[in-house]
Structures are given as C-alpha cells and as structure tokens.
C-alpha cells in the first residue's frame, strides 16, 4: 500500500516537473487572472469560462476589477454547401466562424484596436449516417470556439506584456 502511494506521488512530481498542464490551460499573467467578456454568444462565453477555469483564472461578472475587457463584435457563424451528390443532397459543408474583438481596461481605455479572427472547417456529410453527422458538426463548432478563444487569449497576453514594458 505504501509503495503504491509512493509511486503515485513520484508520478505526480514527474508530471508537474516536465511542464505538463491540462489541454487548453494557459499560464496567465497576473493582470489576466480576471477578465470580462463584453458581447459574444453563449457558447463563446462558455468557452472563455472553461479556459479561465483551467488556467486558474475567472470570468468577471462586471468590468470592475477586471484586468482586461474583451469586447466582441459582429460574431457570425455560417454554414454553406460545398458539393452535392447525384441525388441533389449536400455531401460537403464548410463552417465559417468570424468575429471582431478589441481589448480595453476596466476604465474603457482601449488597449488594442479592433481585430478580426476567422476559423474555417470543412466536413463530409455522409447521407447514411445523418445523426452522427449532426453530432460531428456540434463537435467541430465547439473546436472552432476553442480555437478562437485561444487565439484571443494569446493575443491579450502579448498586448499586456508589451504594455508592461
């Protein structure tokens, strides 16, 4: 029993020493531990909340006390048909997720001007497995939200580090 606990303890030490961290976790600067997201859809805000939770930060309920305010504009999710089968059914889809964002501090002073971000994905729509394809599209959309949030957080880190110099 003691040996088992020792092995678990040593494994935990080795994992923490090698820089292991949860997928999607970021090492956030002190002024990014509390962010406020203004605008944006429910799934996008939920993804921000998950990233902040795994990165030992939190999503603020208001601007007061937030280290950075992320303003979301013109959020748009489009789905278009790329190819059709011989029966006229859609075989391939393209998903495009686009938004504009900017950074401000808690007093609404602009830290970075408005920037666009866009993510595109294509997937094959097999007509025999329609239910599975609906689930696949939901997974792809979630991954697109994750990618956009990671892009915005990485950009915010760069802007805050440049402003601190």
Tags for this model:
flat; Double Stranded RNA Binding Domain; five-stranded mixed beta sheet; LPS-assembly lipoprotein LptE; 3 helices; 165 residues; 33% strand; alpha/beta; lipoprotein; membrane
What does this structure look like?
This protein is of the alpha/beta class. It has a single domain, classed as Double Stranded RNA Binding Domain (2-Layer Sandwich), CATH 3.30.160. The protein has three helices and five strands, in the order αβαββββα. The chain has a five-stranded mixed β-sheet with strand order 2-1-3-4-5, covered by helices on one side. The protein is flat, with a radius of gyration of 20 Å. The chain starts with a helix and ends with a helix. The mean pLDDT is 83. One of its GO terms (molecular function) is lipopolysaccharide binding. Belongs to the LptE lipoprotein family. Together with LptD, is involved in the assembly of lipopolysaccharide (LPS) at the surface of the outer membrane. Required for the proper assembly of LptD. Binds LPS and may serve as the LPS recognition site at the outer membrane.
Write the layout of secondary structure elements.
Layout: H1 2-17, E1 34-38, H2 42-54, E2 58-59, E3 68-84, E4 90-104, E5 110-124, H3 130-164
Parallel strand pairs: 1-2, 1-3
Antiparallel strand pairs: 3-4, 4-5
At CATH's second level, what is the architecture? 2-Layer Sandwich
Largest sheet: 5 strands, mixed
The shape, in one word, is: flat
The fraction of residues assigned to DSSP E strands is 25-35%
Q: Radius of gyration over alpha carbons? A: 20 Å
The number of strands is 5
Pfam families: LptE
Family: Belongs to the LptE lipoprotein family.
Subunit structure: Component of the lipopolysaccharide transport and assembly complex. Interacts with LptD.
GO molecular function: lipopolysaccharide binding
């Amino acid at each position: 029993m003691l040996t088992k606990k020792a092995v678990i303890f040593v494994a935990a030490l080795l994992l923490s020493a090698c820089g292991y961290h949860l997928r999607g976790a970021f090492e956030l600067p002190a002024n990014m531990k509390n962010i406020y997201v203004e605008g944006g859809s429910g799934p996008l805000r939920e993804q921000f909340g998950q990233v902040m939770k795994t990165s030992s930060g939190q999503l603020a309920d208001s601007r007061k006390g937030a280290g950075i305010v992320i303003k979301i504009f013109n959020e748009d999710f489009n789905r278009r048909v790329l190819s059709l089968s011989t029966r006229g059914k859609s075989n391939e889809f393209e998903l495009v997720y686009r938004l504009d964002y900017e950074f401000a501090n808690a007093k609404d002073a602009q830290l970075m001007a408005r920037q666009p971000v866009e993510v595109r994905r294509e997937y094959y729509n097999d007509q025999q497995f329609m239910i599975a394809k609906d689930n696949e599209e939901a997974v792809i959309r979630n991954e697109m939200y994750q990618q956009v949030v990671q892009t915005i957080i990485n950009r915010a880190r760069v802007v805050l580090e440049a402003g601190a110099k």
